[in-house]
Specification:
Length: 231
């Protein structure tokens, strides 16, 4: 974590260096400032770039509305595959599932008020669902795109929805399971496309559009709704 101190606020930011040719700044919905820079640029040059953009960064950060953290209380809404479900706690064997318009936690009555246990159960359920659905969609799209990938990792990534390594190993943020299926498919296609195109130039997006012609809509959806994909 890097810090640029200004008269108004301290700007904390992370630097991601790659083979790109230009500098860019991304301000995520949670307030994280990500600076993407060419490998050859010095930290001084990057910091100067951020200093020059400080007014714009501050204006963006001050307009971000904090998202209320989950309390894991009955009646609270949880997002899954693009739909909100109300949480209910029922007595029974330990488990989490969805029925009608509800996401339920089943456990012994003595633990109904154990928030940490309920959070742990829901996180585990979401991660298992993400692993199952992501692998299913990967298998489907890899066949029609005629691509082979390496290992698959389902993670709680802080700055990305997905990534593809130089060895074609794929990583996905388990939180994408909260998005509509079509948006999940976009992330799948996006990362598979990086097996052939290790960049975000026109040829990459042209290739993505062959299998996800509404990719611009999906990108916009994540920009606008990514802040709500929280647990």
């Amino acid at each position: 974590m890097n810090i640029l101190r200004t008269e108004i606020m301290d700007i904390k930011y992370d630097i991601i260096k790659s083979k790109r040719k230009s500098l860019s700044i991304t301000i995520e919905n949670n307030g994280n400032v990500i600076v993407r820079a060419p490998k050859f640029l010095s930290d001084y040059e990057i910091k100067k770039f951020i200093f020059d953009k400080r007014k714009w960064i501050i204006s963006k950060l001050t307009n971000i509305k904090p998202i209320k953290e989950k309390e894991y209380r009955d009646g609270e809404k949880f997002l899954y595959l693009g739909k909100y479900y109300k949480l209910i706690t029922i007595e029974g064997n330990y488990g989490v599932g969805i029925q009608n318009d509800f996401i339920y936690i089943s456990l012994k009555k003595d633990f109904f008020d154990n928030i940490s246990l309920k959070k742990e159960m829901i996180l585990k359920w979401y991660k298992n669902e993400a692993k199952k659905i992501i692998n299913e969609r990967l298998e489907y799209y890899s066949k029609i795109m005629n691509l082979k990938y390496g290992k698959v990792y389902i993670r709680d990534q802080k700055t990305r929805w997905g990534s593809c390594s130089g060895k074609n190993n794929l990583s996905f943020n388990f939180r994408i399971i909260m998005a509509p299926m079509r948006k999940i498919d976009y992330i799948i296609v996006h990362e598979l496309a990086h097996i052939l195109h290790k960049h975000h130039q026109k040829s990459f997006w042209d290739y993505v559009s062959k299998y996800c012609d509404d990719y611009l809509e999906s990108r916009k959806w994540f920009r606008e709704n990514g802040k709500y994909l929280i647990l």
